Amino acid sequence: MTAMPMRGRARLTVVGAVGADEWPSHVRVRVARAEDAARVRAMHERCSPETRRLRYFTSAPRLPEAALSRLLVPEHGVSLVAVAPDGAIGALATLFHPASEPVAEVALLVEDGWQRHGLGTTMLRSLVEHAAVRGASDLRAHVLPWNRRMLALFDRAGLVSRRGYEDGVVLVEAEVPPGVRVPGRCA
Ligand SMILES: CC(C)(COP(=O)(O)OP(=O)(O)OC[C@H]1O[C@@H](n2cnc3c(N)ncnc32)[C@H](O)[C@@H]1OP(=O)(O)O)[C@@H](O)C(=O)NCCC(=O)NCCS
Hints:
Mean pLDDT: 87
Shape: globular
Oligomer: single chain
Bound molecules: coenzyme A
CATH class: Alpha Beta
Helix content: 25-40%
Number of domains: 1
Largest sheet: 8 strands, mixed
Low-confidence stretches: 6-10, 16-24
Number of strands: 8
CATH topology: Aminopeptidase
Distance between the termini: 44 Å
Strand order of the largest sheet: 1-2-3-4-5-6-8-7
Radius of gyration: 15 Å
Structural class: alpha+beta
CATH superfamily: Gcn5-related N-acetyltransferase (GNAT)
């Protein structure tokens, strides 16, 4: 398992057109690219079966090639990866958002050794900014009922969320806050 290359408070830099925070640079969060496939596949293989199950609702270690490509560069939406200084990728966060839809779906995976450093919260906040740029009014996530950490993440990211149930899965929904910073746009 790749250890999180930082201690204490998360030290991250979020780069790209959206979500550029000026934090000390150890781990970078940037928009995913097709050529990240091998390193994202390696991350999936390092993850525990439980972490994979919480994200994909199956613990299968390998995603089919086509599914991985769609995840990295979604036709409708954007994915972010967290990259260590040595190039290892330790997290993947995706926003699925067909252009005409008001609601965008988020899904995140932080590999076991990188969890509980604030990375999931940071990446969810960044997805909120991408959702705002794309004009989505609401976010939602489908979460397994025992996934306490993901259920708490919306609150940690400052979102006011509501919960419902859909086919045995918790549906967490939140409005994209009106005050979300959208780089490049005037207030
Ligand atoms: C759910 C998930 C995305 C959250 O990502 P994360 O990086 O672990 O989240 P954060 O670190 O921002 O916050 C989670 C916890 O870390 C703690 N934390 C945050 N920064 C910390 C720090 N610097 N030091 C110690 N703990 C810290 C938070 O208090 C929180 O604690 P809790 O678990 O007791 O509630 C991640 O755990 C994961 O990938 N899980 C498996 C897959 C999954 O569940 N995906 C969601 C499907 S939609």
